Amino acid sequence: MPRAKLTRRSWLGVCLAAPIAVAATGLPAPALARSKARGIERILSFHHQNTGESLKVVYKADGRLIPENLLRIDHLLRDWRNNEVKHIDPDLLDLLWDLQQKLEVEERITVLSGYRTPATNAMLRRRRRGAATNSFHMKGQAIDLRIAGRSTKQIRNAALALNRGGVGFYPSSGFVHVDTGAPRAWRGV
User: Taking Cα atoms as reference points, which of 96, 103, 140 lies closest to residue 118?
Assistant: First the structure.
């Protein structure tokens, strides 16, 4: 059987047909995004509301974490009240990246709270309701956030759709909590 000659026109046809073939796979959009993301750089951009610090960093490239950039993220997400740093769960970073993909934004994440020491968490529990006794913030597995250009309701809905951890919705306070614990949801003030 003779081999087909690959011309520019036939190559163009293959390239144009590829997106249709991918759509025909029936894979949900997040699964397609994750499969495509293995070979690209994952970039997160943060602005910490309480310290004024900002950071835009590649935390993963070609599926591999970049240790020096993880340290930079750990520092930005430290307990700002006493400058104590804890390692931030890379799964939380992946969750944030996937959340931005779901929201179709590349805007920076405004951080209200990342890591909290047990002392800070206890102080917050005394001052107001809402801080959990065994908060995921104390494990480096949670963040309270806002994302420019998206409402807290949009952020909450996107996080719930990912079904990959805890989602706290605080409409009066204007932020969303996400963590890498078991999927669950609650509404705060």
Answer: 140
